[in-house]
Specification:
mainly alpha, MetI-like_sf, 13 helices
């Protein structure tokens, strides 16, 4: 019996050792892949940052890679002294905040009732939502609709057409359905209404999904420029991305003119374009650390006791 016990102990130790080795290999592979992904994402950003802090000569000669050459902040001085860029930044921040708040309000208002299995017509509404993920009217009908609603050249043309995303709505519905029904039943027994239950019980438990979808909505609005290209004509309503698009287009036109007639146009320095890109990217990157702490799926752990 003692020999059998020793054999079983030896086997268990070997199995544990094999498992620990497999876990270490798996961790090494995960860390390696994560490092590669981080480098792939960071290297272009670092390259643009290096160009924005370098002078014109090393940029044109191709000397700048990941570190600035002939360090200078002249490009950032020009960007921050351009009042049109500052005005676009302020408008883009205001537009993104309003858009995100309204989108989350609509997503929550639609997702909460659709998460209830006893809602009459729930399947019909879900089919309509899913259809919109695969089929749309197209750009021209959307433009005609915005024009007929007298939204052209207004801020609301950038907000109302994309006020809710079917994909994000489905994510919200799935999250609401995973919340234990016993919480709502207990609230109903205490005389709580649906709105009060949603506000005081459901939404505090939904901070992770609210933070995540808010970030997705905000990034999508911050990076959007096609709708402004179609709907906006007033320069005071230009968001940052449209300003960057115009800078690049004007630079390309100037380069073509310079090729035709030498000295007829001056091409924008690459450092100024890079500084404009950094200027438009940094604000949305600053938001992420404030929302990262909500990306925790275990917020409901212990909410319901047996």
């Amino acid at each position: 019996m003692e020999k059998i016990a020793d054999i079983s102990k030896t086997t268990a130790v070997k199995a544990k050792t094999t498992t620990s080795k497999g876990d270490r290999i798996f961790d090494i592979v995960n860390i390696t892949l994560l490092t590669i992904v981080v480098l792939v994402c960071l290297i272009p950003f670092i390259h643009i940052l290096a160009i924005s802090l370098s002078s014109a000569r090393p940029i044109m000669s191709g000397e700048v890679s990941l570190f600035p050459v002939e360090w200078t902040t002249e490009a950032y001085v020009k960007v921050f002294s351009d009042m049109s860029m500052i005005r676009s930044l302020g408008f883009t921040v205001m537009l993104t905040v309003i858009f995100t708040i309204l989108c989350m309000a609509m997503t929550i208002a639609a997702g909460y009732p659709l998460s209830k299995s006893n809602l009459k017509g729930r399947g019909f509404f879900m089919v309509l939502i899913i259809i919109t993920m695969f089929f749309s009217g197209g750009i021209i009908p959307e433009y005609i609709l915005v024009r007929n609603l007298h939204l052209l050249d207004t801020m609301w043309a950038l907000i109302l057409p994309g006020l809710i995303s079917p994909f994000y709505l489905i994510i919200m519905i799935s999250f609401f359905r995973n919340i234990p029904e016993s919480l709502e039943e207990a609230a109903e027994m205490d005389g709580s209404s649906h709105f009060y239950t949603l506000w005081r019980i459901i939404l505090p438990l939904s901070l992770p999904v609210i933070a995540t979808l808010s970030l997705f909505y905000a990034v999508g609005r911050w990076n959007g420029f096609m709708d402004t290209l179609m709907y906006i004509n007033s320069p005071e309503l230009y968001p940052l991305q449209l300003k960057l698009y115009q800078l690049i287009q004007n630079n390309m036109a100037s380069e073509l003119m310079r090729n035709e007639v030498v000295g007829s146009a001056q091409m924008m320095p690459e450092s100024l374009k890079a500084a404009s890109v950094i200027f438009a990217t940094i604000p949305i990157l600053i938001v992420y650390p404030w929302l990262q702490r909500y990306f925790v799926s275990g917020v409901m752990l212990g909410a319901v006791k047996g």
